[in-house]
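re: ur question from earlier - yeah i can do the single chain one, its not a big deal. heres the input i used so u can compare w yours
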Amino acid sequence: MRRSAWLQRHSLSVTVMAAALIGIIFVLDASVHPVTMAGFYLIPLTMLALTARAQRVALAGVVCGLLTVLVFVRQDTLTPSYLFNLLYGALAGLGLVLAAYLIRRLATISDYAILRAQLAEAGADILTGGTPDDLD
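and the output i got, formated as tokens:
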């Protein structure tokens, strides 16, 4: 959770890095014809899921899906087997959007729990006659 919180504090850097990775993956996918590299889009999407809000992850997922379809059309490989790959990628992207939401929700609940614990400790110290030095 601490690493996730650290990444959330640096979300702009992670977003820029994820956008650069999406661009690199698109160029590689468009230039290498017989092999599809659409699965590699899950790497920057996972980075975004750990740091960004669910809406940003969903937007990036849609962009990755559109770039994949563009490559399929450009390479004339829009076949049912490739469409199943696209479906699996969409389901994985949906899972990452859900993960991003849950991570953000967990961070919010953790922050509230920490504040409540600090307030309870301060109140207990005051009632038991603790010194002001006891408070953090």
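The mean pLDDT is 85. not sure if urs matches, ping me
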